[in-house]
């Protein structure tokens, strides 16, 4: 992706992405929980992925107990990072009380299903990212959600859904001395956003392959109906768009150094991520328009094929009508001698011309005359 390797631990992309549309809401910033809400650490261990301290460019060995995390964060020159996985309101209340997290941001982090955004509450920056993963064999965009609380000496992340993005960020920071850690808690937010956007670009590549496959099928002699597949992929692209487009505004604010509590030295890094988000957004819009055009072309092709079938059916019906006219004409002609023969075959004793010596020849002459007249009539009318 052409980014500064000296300030990145890894450029290997995943399939996670984030969008964020952010502005500061006029919300109450009262802390989310009080001491009464705090429960014993053992009750929350099941949702804590990790809790570590990062100092002087490296991670301190071991894991910090939750009840000591707030004290350690206030005393360290580095920062504490706590990762929560799909916590309940009661779970996150323990962490919120420890770090005085804003109540409305905590509520958003628990409920999930938020738009990507960035909000500032006094000294705490709250960011929602939307990692995505493309399941290629199902052509489905799977969207998860990550809430990030960035404080002066701490980072709290809350993950909903399946995503390895935070684990990859932690693995990068845990590997040893890194200039990136000089940015403090901002380093976690930057790498998270960076890997999320890397994931967007990978997903775009997968979708691009599927769009090319659909185009090839539609514009060949394939007789299949592709409308359902195109529609399903358009729906997944729309889901993808909702994860990507809102991220532009928060990254723009971060790139311009407009966010309090975020190290301004990270602005060039966020600027690079912002540029890639804009390119991803453009690619998504292009895919959506292309799928719309392909869907219209497929429907037109289907309409033409149906018209051709209807035309062939009409031709068959016309031939059948013509055959029926011929059959009916010959049947009408054959009816004349049949009717006359039937009448004179009744064997009654007293019948007209029955004793006349020329009666037989006269009846034959009438039959022939009528049959010829019918033939000429039907021939003139195009039935024969």
Which SSEs are present, and which pair or pack?
Elements: E1 48-55, E2 58-59, H1 66-75, E3 79-85, H2 89-99, H3 103-111, E4 117-121, E5 124-129, E6 132-135, E7 140-143, E8 145-150, E9 154-160, H4 165-174, H5 185-218, H6 227-244, H7 248-255, H8 267-344, H9 359-380
Parallel strand pairs: 3-9
Antiparallel strand pairs: 1-2, 1-3, 4-5, 5-8, 6-7, 8-9
Question: Could you explain how this protein is built, in words?
Answer:
- The chain has 384 residues and is of the alpha+beta class.
- Helix content is 52%, strand content 13%.
- It has nine helices and nine strands.
- It has a seven-stranded mixed β-sheet, with helices on both faces. A two-stranded antiparallel ribbon has the order 6-7.
- The protein is rod-shaped.
- Residues 1-42 have low confidence and may be disordered.
Q: Strand order within the widest sheet?
A: 2-1-3-9-8-5-4
Number of beta strands: 9
CATH H-tier superfamily of the largest domain? CorA soluble domain-like
Secondary-structure content class: alpha+beta
Any descriptors?
Methane Monooxygenase Hydroxylase, Chain G, domain 1, 7-stranded mixed beta sheet, alpha+beta, Beta Polymerase, domain 2, 9 helices, two-stranded antiparallel sheet, disordered N terminus, 384 residues, rod-shaped
Brief rundown of the structure:
The protein is of the alpha+beta class. Helix content is about 50%, strand content about 15%.
């Amino acid at each position: 992706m052409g980014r500064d390797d000296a300030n990145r631990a890894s450029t290997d992309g995943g399939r996670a992405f984030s969008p964020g549309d952010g502005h500061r809401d006029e919300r109450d910033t009262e802390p989310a929980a009080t001491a009464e809400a705090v429960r014993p650490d053992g009750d929350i261990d099941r949702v804590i992925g990790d809790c570590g301290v990062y100092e002087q460019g490296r991670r301190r060995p071991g894991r910090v107990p939750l009840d000591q995390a707030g004290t350690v964060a206030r005393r360290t020159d580095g920062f504490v990072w706590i990762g929560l996985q799909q916590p309940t309101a009661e779970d996150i209340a323990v962490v919120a009380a420890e770090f005085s997290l804003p109540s409305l941001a905590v509520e958003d982090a628990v409920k999930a299903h938020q738009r990507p955004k960035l909000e500032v509450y006094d000294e705490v920056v709250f960011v929602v990212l939307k990692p995505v993963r493309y399941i290629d064999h199902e052509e489905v965009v799977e969207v998860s959600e990550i809430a990030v609380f960035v404080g002066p000496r701490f980072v709290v992340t809350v993950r909903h859904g399946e995503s390895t993005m935070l684990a990859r960020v932690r693995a990068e920071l845990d590997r040893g001395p890194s200039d990136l850690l000089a940015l403090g808690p901002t380093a976690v937010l930057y790498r998270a956003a960076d890997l999320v956007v890397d994931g967007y670009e990978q997903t775009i590549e997968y979708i691009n392959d599927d769009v090319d496959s659909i185009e090839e099928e539609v514009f060949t002699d394939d007789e299949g109906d592709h409308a359902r597949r195109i529609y399903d992929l358009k729906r997944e692209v729309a889901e993808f768009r909702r994860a990507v487009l809102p991220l532009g505004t928060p990254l723009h604010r971060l790139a311009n150094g407009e966010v309090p509590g975020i190290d301004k030295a990270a602005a060039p890094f966020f600027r690079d991520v912002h540029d890639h988000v804009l390119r991803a957004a453009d690619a998504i819009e292009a895919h959506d328009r292309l799928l719309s055009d392909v869907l219209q072309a497929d429907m037109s092709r289907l309409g033409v094929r149906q018209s051709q079938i209807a035309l062939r059916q009409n031709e068959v019906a016309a031939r059948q009508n013509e055959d029926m006219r011929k059959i009916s004409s010959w049947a009408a002609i054959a009816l004349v001698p049949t009717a006359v023969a039937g009448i004179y075959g009744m064997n009654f004793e007293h019948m007209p011309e029955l004793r006349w010596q020329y009666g037989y020849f006269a009846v034959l002459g009438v039959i022939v005359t009528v049959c010829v007249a019918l033939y000429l009539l039907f021939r003139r009318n195009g039935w024969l």
